[in-house]
Queue: 2 jobs
Job 1
Amino acid sequence: MIDLTGKTAVVTGGSRGIGRAVATTLAAAGARVVIADRSDALRTDGASTSDVITAAGGIAESVLLDIADSQQVDAVFGDVATRFGIDILVNNAGVLSAGTVLETSDEAWRSIFAVNVDGTFFCTRAAIRHMVDAGKGGKVVNVASISGLRANPGFAGYCAAKGAMVNFTRQVGIDYAPLGINVNGVAPGFVETDMTAIYDASIRGALEAQTPNGKWADPQQIADTVLFLSSQLSNHICGEIIAVDGGWLVGTPVVPVASAVSA
Ligand SMILES: NC(=O)c1ccc[n+]([C@@H]2O[C@H](COP(=O)([O-])OP(=O)(O)OC[C@H]3O[C@@H](n4cnc5c(N)ncnc54)[C@H](O)[C@@H]3O)[C@@H](O)[C@H]2O)c1
């Protein structure tokens, strides 16, 4: 039902994790995918995301980009727009660092905002500039977090940055709704990626217990929602954030879910 043939998608941070699943999913739906990451284009082992997509019969290329550098962003997006146009942007690249405010240095704060907030802004502006010029509408999907919709103890910078992404999504979502550019976001819960490999078994168990369906997400489950928001099926959704979190934001269990249900 979702056919993105003829569309070009830029996926930031697509060399691994959620971004890789997003890139392969959009490509499987027919899109040409440009993976813009600070590492993917450097891979020479045949295992870059674009190599994987191409081997599966899709159309993809990897571009080296630090999204925190607005000049690089404008140059890369200008080049992609000239060659293919830009129909879809997925702002997925992000970084995580822990710390209360007293544990957060100036440098750590600036670095988390530079990627998650500034980078999202630079890429969104560059893509929307071309979407407006082309006059065909478009899709922007921001990968925020449950940490942008409620507090997450010990993650001051990350929660503030993801919160900024969430309201940025809403704002841009209404500004460009009249032009047929849908700007929406997903808020993943806990997802099995390199980013969350920092958690040891006891923390993982505690987080599972706090999640109503008792599970972490597979990156593919986030990608499936991004695919929906990148498609014509989401044409009437503007500035919305969809949580993909096993029910975590809706209600954290105070007793294990299974015993609550059987009681
Ligand atoms: N994993 C989770 O549980 C989880 C939960 C909620 C939200 N998220 C968000 O999902 C997104 C992807 O997370 P992930 O778990 O796949 O992370 P990851 O660390 O596995 O992958 C992040 C990717 O972003 C790229 N990247 C980082 N900084 C960049 C920059 N300045 N320029 C270009 N590329 C850059 C990295 O090279 C990497 O490929 C992030 O925005 C993250 O905050 C993740």
Job 2
Amino acid sequence: MKHAEDLMARSMRVAPGGVHSNTRRITPQLMPKSGKGARVTTQDNKEYIDFHASFGPIILGHAYSKVTNFITEALQEQDLFGFGATEYEIRCCEKIVEHVPSAEKVLLTNSGTESTFHAIRVSRAITGRKKIIKFQGCYHGWHDYVARNMLSAKELIGKRDPGSAGMLDEAVDSTLVCRYNDLDDVEQTIKQNKDEVAAIIVEPIPHNIGCVLPQSGFLEGLRELTKQHGIVLIFDEVITGFRHGLGGYQQACGVTPDLTTLGKAIANGYPIAAVCGKAEIMDYFTTNPSGNALFAGTYNGHAVGTAAILATLDILETEPVYDHIYKLGATMRSGIQDIADRNGLPVTVKGFGSVFVPYFTRDTIENYEDLMKVDVESDLKFRRGMIEQGVLMIPLPMKRNHTMYALSQSDVDYTLEAAEKVMKAMGREA
Ligand SMILES: Cc1ncc(COP(=O)(O)O)c(C=O)c1O
């Protein structure tokens, strides 16, 4: 550990807190060195089976040869041009239009945060309205429009809870917060703010709080209400898009939003994202000569990202990736649930497809309030125990775990044996 501590001390001398995104400060503080397939190696030369997957982008595996080779080859002749559009950019957009039900037109960005920002601003431009609705517990990036009521403390649930100092009051107060899975709350909020709501933005599955599944009729109800009231419906599929299928979760649930934001698994970990949707809305962006919602970015459509999307999509289209990651996801969900039950631990494992989340409670989890019942201490103890066994489940409460294509059945078998050891010890202590 000394090496990791020294490195962190060195990093802290030149970077505030030593990390470059605030959720990377964890205990124990692991310092990554390399990653290959389903494994990451830290600076102490310890190897871990990786279920963190860098918060979800790694859907195939780390340093995945077919992706890295394609990018390396592309970079021999392409980087960044700053005029027109490359054939790679065009092909990426064609692919997204082909697969994602809501996508008639697409613009490429560098991050999910940029995509949600643009989706909201164009919604304001097209409706001439100021307010938006988001849901308690959902995360849509760090900009002022959406950075409120994310992981709120109990006493701030549904109340005014800006996520940062320095946010503009006008931005915070223009974002209304509703309860997920509560259509009455949404309807009432729309009525109380009649003709003022430009957009509703929602993670169709709120994965930033693990995995809270939409109740039957909830997403359909949002679609209905937004149509009735002339509101733009934005599905933030930065996590769900391409991780839950080529058409995103919207294809699985059969609800088509007006706009969709994509990122993370779209490019197996390379920095590129997208905003897409109905042509009549997308044409409002100033990339179109008659548009009036500013859209610009020096690095948009960089060859590293576009090559990564094309290589990743090619594998997702032609290999049994979803069969594999869904099967291992299901094995992890049932395996951990059985182990917890056998050891008398109050755990409910939730998830979807490749995602699994052990919540340390036996109560049902349907919205943010329900998370207050989770035993966070035990959750962290389990995750830290797994790290000691060589399995990386990020030691942050309720964060989701992911299976990836490079993960093998024997990795899963090993992980379940490790979980048995950790939970047995926890059961004995309880
Ligand atoms: C649902 C969702 N939307 C948007 C974002 C922001 O994406 P990025 O971190 O690429 O800016 C995230 C990041 O975790 C996310 O989970």
